[in-house]
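Methods, example record. To illustrate the input and output format used throughout this study, we show the complete record for M20/M25/M40 family metallo-hydrolase. The sequence lines were provided to the predictor; the line carrying structure tokens was produced by it.
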Amino acid sequence: MSAPVTGRATTDRLLALTRAALPRYLAELERLVSIDSGSYSAAGVNRVADEVAARLHGLGFTVERRSGLRLPTGQPAGDVVLARRRGALARADGGRCVLLAAHMDTVFDDGTALARPFTTADGLAHGPGVSDDKGGLLAGLHAVAALDELGFDRYAELVFLATPDEEIGSPVSRAVTEAAAREADHALALECARENGDLVVARKGVADLRISVTGKAAHAGIEPERGAHAALAAAHLVVALQELNGTLPGASVNVGVVHAGSRPNIVPADAELHVEIRATTARHLRSCCAAVEAAARRTTVPGTHARVEVTDLCPPMEETPANRRLAETALRIGAALGVRGGAAATGGVGDANLIAGTGTPVLDGLGPIGGGDHGPDEWLDLSSVPGRIALLAALIAELGDARGDHLAF
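The corresponding predicted structure is encoded as:
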């Protein structure tokens, strides 16, 4: 049953619990960071999944592991961990389902954990994945444990999702994430807070496009006029696409890869561009894709034509009124706990984008403060850990019960 604690007594007790749990958090963080779990290392990801699943079992969750998955490359993927725990409230009584989402994979190759092991110095923890996202993943587990210590169970259901492939666009876990999001009333994504302590209320969406330019081959020395120069057409198209930047509100275009030709004495018959579009809203993303397609239709080299294919599409996490209300609730709770920070938008993409695409309200950046993601100096601010876990726990409690503010923040 939920403990009848309110106001300052709740604040003090919750912070005391999370501070007391910090040594365990650090030990678990070192253990996870010491595991190489790059997106393409299924064995490493599954070692992290073993740790996460065991912790969730210990917290009373029913744990399901989706295994036998394959990445688009054909390589095996790590397991998806999806865990559920019922609370004391029925939906009819105001109980709500809260989804916690984090990822187990990193961007680093096998051997990185040995070459750059977990360390702590001057109040910071360092190591591959310490901030993105192992620190946030553990924060979710510890927030649930703190609520258990308080005896709080006033929610319909808690769902904990740990994915194996976020760093490569979630190709195997996307459907699981979207299905879990559709069942939830609120979602909290556990990427770490921004370096200044801000939560994340919006993320840009991304469209990946492949543009195939087709021309006609010819001998470059004897009869180049009989060819249609695909590389030249592609070069004009690169300029045209880059010039779209600044003309479309809320969107950006980057031609990141260009391939053309096979030999220097042949007029190239084929070229290929890989293009990334980022935009703040779904409408802007569609408008930018349409502008790219229009530019591709305007060929400047006779005899060539271009075909545009969307190879991947990740919806934006838009700053909707519902997401803004989640942020305001979190900031109010944070103020009561003495946790600093605001709410920010970012250009980076995460599983929160997929959740937002289902229409479920979502807030991100609920892990501890960290930075240097994807680089050799990645760090996590250890002083932020207790307060951020307390904030997350209190937010879960408030969102789980639609009829009352039982932790009284």
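Annotations derived from this record:
The chain has two domains: 7-204+317-400, 210-314.
Confidence is low (pLDDT under 50) at residues 1-6.
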